[in-house]
Design brief:
The chain contains 20 helices and 12 strands. By secondary structure, it is α/β, with parallel strands linked by helices. Among the domains are: 341 residues, ABC transporter type 1, transmembrane domain (ABC transporter transmembrane region fold, Up-down Bundle), CATH 1.20.1560; 75 residues, P-loop containing nucleotide triphosphate hydrolases (Rossmann fold), CATH 3.40.50.300. It has a 6-stranded mixed β-sheet, sandwiched between helices. The chain is elongated, with a radius of gyration of 35 Å. The protein starts with 9 loop residues before the first helix and ends in a 32-residue tail after the last helix. The structure holds adenosine-5'-triphosphate.
């Protein structure tokens, strides 16, 4: 094997029998609802969807949309004019005159045909140019609409099976918004040409048009069926496509790149990728066969229908029911009507399929994937007291209860620490206190009002969170702290927050200070270390004028000096805020006024640091002893480390009152 070729791992080819497969969960009810939408129901929805797509174009560029429609109508009128002129030309050719006279008689019609064809060609170029100009802007607007709907969804949406599918489908719908404008245009053009040609055909003989329509009908029905089969197959494959996209992302990701190499995982991951790819291939092959079968039946029926129309026309001419010149013109008109009908069938089927994608987009915009924020409108001030009572919360995709019967409170000026083993529910509880999740049972109140009754955006104005996995925005250092919401005194506030979090030292080393772009090098930015990013994440929380500060493992990546400074400053930070601190480093929770120990989503203990350390049979004491065992700190120690800064121990960082936010 080539040294550069990633090795294939046998485990990837032969997974254990009880091993769970990588699968994207979908909301079965939504898929069933989509499958239940019949062709006639979709056909009824189609005009509304086309109008919505045109409205999008209208919002982006009114004059271009109007111009497009005008061009299409004029083009159709020119097409019909050309066809009428064809009748004149043929009549002249079949007339009794001499050749020269025939040409003289036919000349005006020929001129009209040539002028109409030339003008239509010019209009075609115009339509193409406008469409190229309009399309990307419509796409962007459609994507922006999805982004707006995403931001308007409850956070819990991401934990629902199927939400990501809806989002993906909406994205696909946004992509095809452009197509629907083009397809609707083409359909309008085909209908307009049909009307023109049908007028001519009806004048020549009234029986021909209904016959032709009958002949085209089976093809139309088959095309729409085939489009529906393809759409449903695509819709069902969204999950697998997402798995592939996610695998690609995990393999590409810079954060994982070193481990993919050092753990020689390349081959193993690629095998997983291929497995899912094969599953996808199988389902798309099945759909292709199914739609091919439907199309073959449609084409055969159309062939028969066309033969019938031509036979009928021959019979009309040979039986003297139609004159020869009219028969000649009818040949052209039949060809034109046939082209228009095929266009209507083809574009109609395209429009139908695109309409189904657009339906996903449109539904997502209306409901934010079924999770639109629907809370109260009361605007909260900075909270004085936040409390939860008999709180229960279960993640939608989980059978277990993450929080069960939790009651506690935190007040302004107070630091509440949440401790407990992994998975005990600390982060979930912090999210409920911050109104990011709503209780499934019991209550979560800010100053006596249920969080679900408060305006969510106004509530989050009062929340500052340093999550475990903080965002590393590809923005400038300043924007990474202000998050686009600068304080009235601008950089002075930014620097106060930066001093208090230790980010000021990071800023000082940046090539342009606060104005430095923080992004990976290939995006033109300067990359920071994990701890440096965490200092910025804390600075952004300190910078927010929020009544509730949630710190979830805020110092995990910090060096001892930086960590010391944060906890030195926390008391001053808490003066104007309620602070919830989640951490496993029990030395740090000594700064808290009260500590709540969680286990399996329930409150196990509550008390001050001194109380909990003194309780020798309690869980806190057990964890405290375990932590200290390795550091040699006497297990009996029950006096909290000094974190008040009142003993003059401000640490080697020299943090002063002025540097506090
Ligand atoms: N998005 C999610 N979907 C489903 N279950 C989840 C989700 N997030 C957390 N859980 C589950 O909820 C429980 C509580 O998780 P939580 O993150 O609150 O624990 P924690 O105490 O903060 O853990 P840690 O100390 O590891 O950070 C766990 O059993 C976890 O598996």
């Amino acid at each position: 094997m080539n040294a550069a070729t990633p090795q294939t791992h046998p485990e990837a080819q032969a997974p254990a029998e009880d091993e769970e497969e990588l699968r994207w969960l979908a909301d079965g009810r939504r898929i069933e609802a989509i499958e239940a939408i019949g062709i006639s129901a979709m056909a009824r929805r189609l005009p509304m969807l086309v109008v919505r797509a045109f409205r999008l174009g209208w919002r982006v560029d009114r004059s271009s949309v109007v111009l497009l429609l005008v061009c299409q109508v004029v083009s159709a009128v020119l097409g019909a004019t050309g066809l009428f002129a064809t009748t004149g030309t043929i009549a002249a050719l079949f007339g009794p005159e001499a050749v020269g006279d025939k040409l003289t008689r036919a000349a005006p019609s020929i001129l009209v045909i040539a002028a109409a064809a030339g003008a239509r060609a010019l209009l075609g170029i115009m339509i193409q140019t406008i469409t190229v100009h309009l399309s990307p802007r419509i796409s962007r607007e459609a994507e922006a609409a999805v982004l707006r709907a995403t931001v308007a969804a409850e956070l819990t949406a991401y934990d629902h099976a199927g939400y990501n599918d809806e989002l993906d489908a909406a994205d696909r719908g946004a992509e095809v918004c452009v197509d629907i404008v083009g397809e609707a245009q083409n359909l309008i053009a085909a209908v307009a040409s049909l009307l023109g040609a049908a007028g001519v055909l009806t004048v020549l003989h009234p029986a021909l048009l209904p016959l032709l329509v009958l002949a085209a009908l089976p093809q139309g029905i088959a095309s729409v069926h085939a489009a529906r089969v393809q759409f449903l197959a695509n819709r069902a494959a969204i999950g697998d496509r997402r798995v592939l996209a996610n695998l690609r992302w995990y393999i590409h990701l810079k954060r994982n790149a070193d481990q993919v190499r050092s753990d020689t995982m390349g081959g193993f991951l690629l095998d997983k990728y291929e497995q899912v790819g094969r599953r996808l291939d199988a389902s798309s092959r099945k759909a292709a066969m199914q739609s091919a079968r439907v199309s073959v039946v449609g084409a055969a029926a159309t062939g028969l229908g066309t033969a019938l129309v031509w036979t009928a026309m021959l019979w009309l001419v040979t039986s003297g029911r139609m004159s020869l010149p009219h028969g000649g013109a009818a040949v052209f008109a039949l060809a034109a009507v046939g082209t228009s009908l095929r266009g209507i069938v083809g574009y109609g089927a395209d429009l139908f399929r695109t309409g189904m994608y657009l339906d996903d987009w449109s539904t997502f915009l209306d409901t934010a994937g079924g999770h639109r924020l629907r809370r109260g409108t009361a605007v909260p001030q900075a909270p004085r007291r936040i409390e939860v009572e008999n709180l229960r919360y279960a993640y939608p995709s989980s059978e277990r209860t993450a929080l069960d019967g939790v009651s506690l409170h935190v007040e302004r000026g107070e630091i509440l620490a949440l401790v407990g083993e992994n998975g005990s529910g600390k982060t979930t509880l912090a999210k409920l206190l911050a109104g990011l999740y709503l209780p499934a049972g019991g209550s979560a109140r800010w100053d006596g009002r249920e969080t679900r009754d408060l305006d969510p955006h106004a509530l989050w104005q009062q929340v500052a969170v340093v999550p475990q996995d903080y965002a590393r925005w590809p923005l400038t250092c300043r924007e990474n702290i202000t998050l686009g919401q600068p304080a009235p005194d601008g950089d002075a506030a930014v620097m106060r927050a930066a001093e208090a979090s230790g980010a000021a030292e990071v800023v000082a080393k940046l090539r342009r200070g606060l104005s430095t772009l923080l992004a990976v090098e290939w995006m033109g930015g300067e990359e920071l270390s994990g701890g440096q990013w965490q200092r910025l994440a804390i600075a952004r929380a300190f910078h927010r004028e929020a009544g509730l500060l949630v710190l979830d493992e805020p110092t995990a990546a910090l060096d001892p000096r930086a960590e010391h400074r944060i906890f030195q400053n926390l008391r001053a930070v808490a003066r104007e805020r309620a602070v919830v601190l989640v951490t496993h480093r029990l030395t740090n929770v000594a700064v808290a006024d009260r500590i709540v120990v969680l286990e399996d989503g329930k409150v196990l203990q509550e008390g001050t640091f001194a109380d909990l350390v003194a309780d020798e049979s309690g869980r806190f004491r057990e964890l405290w002893d375990l932590q200290n065992e390795r550091t040699g700190v006497p297990a009996q120690r029950n006096r909290p480390p000094d974190t008040t800064g009142t003993t003059g121990t401000t640490g080697t960082t020299g943090t002063t009152e002025e540097t506090r936010p």
